[in-house]
Structure formats: C-alpha cells, structure tokens
Design a protein that fits this description.
The complex is a heterodimer of chains A (73) and B (174). Chain A is 60% helix and 8% strand. Chain A has 73 residues and is mainly alpha-helical. In chain A, strands 1-2 form a two-stranded antiparallel sheet. In chain A, helix 2 packs across helix 3. Chain A starts with a strand and ends with a helix. By secondary structure, chain B is mainly alpha-helical. Helices cover 76% and strands 3% of the residues of chain B. In chain B, strands 1-2 form a two-stranded antiparallel ribbon. The chains are: A mainly alpha (73), B mainly alpha (174).
Amino acid sequence: MPITVNLDVMLATRKMRSKELAKKIGITPANLSILKSGKAKAIRFSTLEAICRELNCQPADILAFSSDESNDI
Amino acid sequence: MLNIYFMKKLNILKTIVDVFWIFSTLLILIILLAIPYILFVDNSNYFDIHISGFKIKTIDFPTKIFIIIQMLSYLLLIYCLYIFRKILEYFVRNKIFNELVLKNLNKMGVLLIICSFSMGISSMLYEVFYTEKVTIALGFTPFVLLLCMGLFFMILSEIFKTSKIMKEENQLTI
C-alpha cells in the first residue's frame, strides 16, 4: 500500500511504548500493532486525533504517501 | 454475535432440515436399490409408478433411462439438502462468513440448476415422445422453481463474499 504508517518512529522519538500509547488512546495493543505493521485498511479520525493529541504531532508525521517507482515510469 | 431471535429461527429451521434429512436417507437407500432393479430386471408387466406427474405403465429402454435420470436428480437434490444442513451447522456455530459457507452456497446453486435442467428436460422429452402432446404451463413448475432457487443460492454466495470483504475491512479499521 502506498500509505505508510510511521508510528514506530514517532513512538521512538517520544520514548513511549506501544502499550502505553494504546492505553492512552483507548484501543487494544493488538489493534495498535495492526496499525503499526501497516495491515490496517483504514483509520478513524477519532483514533488519528487521539494519537496526534498524545504524541503532540500532526497527522502528516504519522502517515506518509510513497508512490511506487514502477508507477512513475 | 448472533441475537436470540436469530438463533431461535435458526434452530427451528435446522430441526426441520434435520428431520427432512433423516427421512431422505431412507429415500437414498430406496433409490440405490431401485436403479439396478429397473435396469436389469424385466419388469415390463407389473410396473405401475408415477414420476413427475406421469403414470408409467410400459417399461421400455428410453423409459428406464427417464426414470434413472429422475432418480439421479432426486439424489442430487438430497445431496443439496445435506450441503444446506452443513451450512446451517456453520451458522449455529457462529461461523457465518466462513470460506466453506461461501463455497457450499455456490455449490448448492450449481447443483440445483443441474437438477432443474436434468429433471425439466427429461420430463419434457418423455411428455413429447410418450403422451404425444406438448403443453405450456405458466406458474411455479418444479423446473422454474429449482432454477430460481439455484440462481438465488449462487447470488447469495456472491453477497456473502462481498459481506466477508466488508467485515474484514471493518475489522481492520482502527
């Protein structure tokens, strides 16, 4: 998928553990793991809002778009 | 999670299908014994049966083939009942969007369509050659009904496939 989730990078820079974030934003660690691994199909605005609030960042810091090189040619 | 009203209806349906299935197993035995009897025993004098609304008195080779096609179609119908029973078992175990349910629904649809054609065409040919009359009847004949049911189950399988994808998407929405 061209959308990548940089949640692990943000967690590392904030020195926060996944479990802690999951508890703060009110989702299960399993669901946070799905989000981190990029297996998630969609993200709710409420979840994104909670993550941004807790990590004190912008949605663009968490989500990034990377186009395939093969598509550009 | 299935609600209690759904489970009640499902249990009633499963009980009816189970009872019907038990009686059908007897029918399987009768059909399996009757096929070799019809094929190999000379029974042209004392045969008097009704199949698909036709009174069969004289037994020649084409009539034997007609009877056997009808009996094999009944066996297929009983197999469809068995598949339906399996689908209901999955529903009771709360595995509604299981891959096997989708496959079985589609298989059931295909089998019902085969049944409708084998029964419908053989009956039509028998009517044309033996009663020497062609009638067109409007309404719910077994041929049309089985064909509609077959197509309905195939459509249901596709709907379940779409629902399964939607369910997975919903589960992967964080």
